[in-house]
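User: Quick sanity check before I run a bigger batch. Here is a single chain. Can you write out its predicted 3D structure?
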Amino acid sequence: MTKVAFQGERGAFSEDAVVKFFGVDVTPIPCLYFADVFEMVDKGLADFGTVPTENSQAGSINETYDLLLEYPLNIYGEVDLIVNHFVMALPGETLSSIKRIYSHPKALAQCEKFLSEIDAEIVPTYDTSGSAKMIRDAKLKNCAAIASERAAEIYGLDILARNVESTKNNYTKFFIISKEKAKRADENKTTLILKTENKPGTLYQCLGALAKRKINLTKLESRPNKNKPWEYIFYMDFEGHQDDENCAEALKEINNYTSLLKIVGSYPKIDSELSRIV
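Assistant: Done. Predicted structure follows.
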């Protein structure tokens, strides 16, 4: 059975992304850290990994991008997952009996409006589903966790409130990483990591290599170069496959202006609204 690593306890939103991409007939492998997911795939202990890359409200997950540079792995696919938060507790509890609520700081922030109306202590923890597991294992009375619906099912908790996120269009994008390269689809997307030469206009020339070939740039982001202060590495997404004639020509031209160029993957583009491969 296909083994898929993800960060978090069973019931994490990352596991929801695993199920959405692969279905239920896989072996999920929970990992403590994002780096552990990459390590499991790199060492062949997992066939694939699933890591969050961007939230529609909070922006990019920087650690994921740093690890994409560090490890020799490919982006095999992507998943857009709508994130709905649920309040859960031991059977028999009610919202009025809850005195303490646990969850990951980002989940708590995404539920700020709901929490402001609850008379309970808010306690940040390392993980959403880990909070649910802690309540189950320690049999914590008068306590609740904010996590996914799957976490409530796994840990046998009652759901006290549904969809408590402040913003309803709350999506997280996940990358599927693998040693394998993705098969070409009807429509594709390519992710690059590059460092331009220290000369005026080099980033402009890289972007121009795409623009003059009518290649649609969908994302451009910079991250600090950890090996050299005040230098930056760029992460770029564009529509098309690296083996398409116009994309291959653009990549060849971009290579002239960079001291680092890593093609992290060409993979099926998804319809962001429906999260389906097109």
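The CA atoms of residues 91 and 158 lie 5 Å apart.

User: Great, the batch can go ahead then.
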